[in-house]
Amino acid sequence: MVAVAVLALAPGGSAQLQYGFYKGKCNGTDVEAVVQGIVRAWFWRENPIVAYLLRMQFHECVINGCDGGLLIDGPGTEKTAPPNLSVKGYDVIAAIKTELERRCPGVVSCSDIQILATRDAVALGGGAAYSVRTGRRDRRRSTVSDVKLPAPEYTAAQTTAYYGRLGLSAFDTVLLLGAHTVGATHCSVIKPRLYSYGGRPGATDPGMDPSYAFVFKKYVCPNVPSSDNTIVFLDDQWSALKVDNQYYKNLQLRRGVLPCDQNLYNDGSTRWIVDLLANNSGLFTSLFPQALIKLSEVNVLTGTQGEIRKVCNKFN
Ligand code: HEM
Q1: Are residues 200 and 88 in the same domain?
Q2: 225 in a structural domain
Q3: Which residues form the signal peptide (predicted)?
Q4: Is residue 314 part of a domain?
Q5: Which of 3, 15, 61, 120 is found 20 to 30 A from 82 (Cα to Cα)?
Q6: Which atom in ligand 1 lies closest to the alpha carbon of residue 52?
Q7: First vs last Cα of the chain: how many Å apart?
Q8: Is residue 113 a contact partner of residue 35, using CB atoms and an 8 Å limit?
Q9: Are residues 133 and 168 in the same domain?
Q10: Is 126 in the pocket of ligand 1 (CB under 6 A)?
Q11: How many domains does the chain have?
């Protein structure tokens, strides 16, 4: 009996998350089908929703767990932390919540909506379809001072240590950063790599493929303030909407965009993982969901903890 109870524990110790938690709880509505329908409709209008939701899951779940804290509006909330100012996708979460509240008020948490919506977006972006456990509750706390996100300049050791504190392995970490297979950043984020590497004026990161650096400096992010907001895809442009392993192939070519990406290849302790994922195209697709699931179960509230919000951007 004890052994069964232990086996029933999710990695985060969240015994009460379960598959199909909402089955039979929403007046005959299939909650997961509603989420999927809205995400699919959104995706056809706005393909980058895959990137928006993946980044949202990351910024949400690493700060006090996946608890809807990032969704709260108002002064001093998580949303106001500088790295969160460019997080997008709040509108699709709000639209799903509105529809589910119409069908069964007070039943489906905002935190579960985030996880389900990201899951559906990943599959639409070419990733694998996967099942997630639900039953998360929304936390009555959202405080900017809690927000401690990794920096783009992190070394591989710093990045793996950051995720290690959440119970994720180095392998999980390299898989999670594979989310940079979709989406974009801005020149302002990578200009230090191009023009003042290591704090030395004029220095370019020697870990960057020189021809790649040349193109960036000449055409994409010239060293003028007006280029700061120029969009830079995190993966090759043709692949920037696709959940695939091209990101890892770019790291092998020293064409990672963010320093924290390239550093995964520069460090021997994570390079082998990059090589494995780059050289086996199906492997990333099949393992990426496992890392997202682990992230989605870190520190969650369940049972009678927290609340089920009426709207996602305000506490009840
Ligand atoms: C060391 C860890 C990480 C760092 C330092 C980092 C940093 C960043 C930065 C600086 C951007 C660009 C933001 C901008 O210019 O507006 C970005 C974008 C993005 N990040 Fe990460 N990230 C990390 C890990 C992750 C993880 C674990 C995920 C998801 C599982 C993720 C998903 C994304 C996505 C999808 C985008 C593109 C967003 C868009 O196009 O709107 N990142 N990240």
Answers
A1: no
A2: yes
A3: 1-15
A4: no
A5: 120
A6: 41
A7: 39
A8: yes
A9: no
A10: no
A11: 2
CB atoms within 10 A of CB 206: 10
Let me know whether 129 and 82 are in one domain: yes
Q: Is residue 1 part of a domain?
A: no
Q: How far is the CA of 257 from the centre of ligand 1 (A)?
A: 11
- Please return the burial class of 207, using the count of CB atoms within 10 Å of its CB with bins 0-12, 13-18 and 19+: middle
CA of 141 to the centre of ligand 1 (A): 24
Query: What are the pLDDT tens digits along the chain (316 aa)?
Result: 333 333 334 444 445 899 999 999 999 999 999 999 999 999 999 999 999 999 999 999 999 999 999 999 999 999 999 999 999 999 999 999 999 999 999 999 999 999 999 999 999 999 999 999 999 999 999 999 999 999 999 999 999 999 999 999 999 999 999 999 999 999 999 999 999 999 999 999 999 999 999 999 999 999 999 999 999 999 998 888 999 999 999 999 999 999 999 999 999 999 999 999 999 989 999 999 999 999 999 999 999 999 999 999 999 9
CATH number, domain of 217, equals 1.10.420.10
166 in any annotated domain: yes
Do 144 and 160 lie in one domain? The reply is no
Q: Is the CB of 159 under 6 A from ligand 1?
A: yes
Q: How far is CA 82 from the centre of its chain?
A: 16
